[in-house]
Amino acid sequence: MTTLTVLIADDQPLIREGLRRVLETDPALRVCGQATDGREAVDRAISLKPDVVLMDIRMPIVNGIEATEQLFARGFDGNVIVLTTFGLDDYVVDALRAGAGGFVLKESPPQRIIDAIHAVANGDALIDPAVTRTVIDQLGRKRFARSTAGPVDPLTARESEVLALLARGYSNAEIAQTLVVGEGTVKTHVAHILTKLGVRDRLQAVIYAYESGLA
């Protein structure tokens, strides 16, 4: 069994300890380190190379969004899941634009946090169901600068349909049902979309779609 390593970054000791205990209930997860602020989170993640960083947004010195940006700017090839109690505002979109592969509320059930770690480590992306609609609504309302998105290979008509459904928050299963195709076919289309857009995951694809005017 492959063990996933996790770095916990949160300025509250009780939260860090609670998360550690939650993760230790899954034998496939191992907490490899902890950080008490954003700057330490970046340094420890670069040093320890965890598979996943659980990143609090509201931290001293460097906040979680800036820390996530710095991590990927320094070549971090792991994944970041943002954990916060602030789920219904621009923090969600800002964190995902910074490169986070998931967003989970701290008050989520323990199993949801564990599932999120496995999901992003498996190449998927995850937003807590409690804030999914808020994220999509915010993306739809925001006016992004189209110049921030570079040129991409043209998407096929079917890929454009899939991207439009991704932008509406549909899961692979929901897309498959809507387009009357198999989930395997949807996964293939999503993989092609990610490659053509040059983004890390489906969440980044959705953000790119809004920024570039594709959605």
Would you write up a description of this structure?
The protein has 215 residues and is of the alpha/beta class. It folds into 2 domains: 4-133, Response regulator (Rossmann fold, 3-Layer(aba) Sandwich); 143-212, Arc Repressor Mutant, subunit A (Orthogonal Bundle), CATH 1.10.10. Helix content is 51%, strand content 14%. The chain has 10 helices and 6 strands; from the N terminus they run βαβαβαβαβαβααααα. The longest helix is centred in the C-terminal third of the chain and has 15 residues, at 183-197. The model is unreliable at 143-149 (pLDDT under 50).
Low-confidence stretches: 143-149
Instruction: Write down the overall mean pLDDT.
Output: 83
Instruction: Tell me the CATH architecture of the largest domain.
Output: 3-Layer(aba) Sandwich
Number of DSSP strands? 6
Estimated structural class:
alpha/beta
How do the helices and strands line up, and which of them pair or pack?
Elements (H helix, E strand, L loop, with lengths): L3 E6 L3 H11 L5 E7 L2 H11 L3 E5 L7 H10 L5 E6 L6 H7 L4 E4 L4 H12 L4 E2 L1 H13 L15 H11 L4 H8 L3 H15 L4 H11 L3
Parallel strand pairs: 1-2, 1-3, 3-4, 4-5, 5-6
In short:
This protein is about 50% helix and about 15% strand. The protein is an alpha/beta fold and about 220 residues long. It folds into two domains: about 5-135, Response regulator (Rossmann fold, 3-Layer(aba) Sandwich), CATH 3.40.50.2300; about 145-210, Orthogonal Bundle (Arc Repressor Mutant, subunit A), CATH 1.10.10.10.
